[in-house]
Model the fold of this input.
Amino acid sequence: MNKNELINKVAEKTGISKKETESVINEALDQVMDTLSKGEKAQFVGFGTFEVRQRASRTGRNPQTGETITIPSTSVPGFRAGNKFKDAVKK
Done:
């Protein structure tokens, strides 16, 4: 499922126009991204938790020269599924 398919399904189920549905979904996603950019969690009971995870710095190798390089630490988004979500996928 892609974003357009999600918009179509939500609009169909709720009876709201596709344009309004797209606006609501975009704003919801923007709010999750804004929350994560502040280093906070976005938790949806039963669905899951979006959180920021830290990747430690590590050494790597430049494939063209073979030179050893240091890859800096970074923050990445992560998702942990809730129990209701896990149970729905199991069935």
